[in-house]
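Predict the 3D structure for this chain.
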Amino acid sequence: MQYTCLIYLDEKKFYALSKDEQNQIHKECGQWHEELVKAGKSLVAPLYSPARPPAPFACRMGKSS
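Done. Predicted structure below.
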């Protein structure tokens, strides 16, 4: 069985940190993931884009617009 672990962050708070603090968080997360890979508990770490408001979408008569 395989699991997916999603890590969410508060973008406002994260980007309010200094670049050094942001880099430290990335470094720590990377090290943690390497430990999971070595232990056989994780295969991949997909990178997802930051959350953004959804784009407007409309469907009329079965056609998107």
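The radius of gyration is 18 Å.
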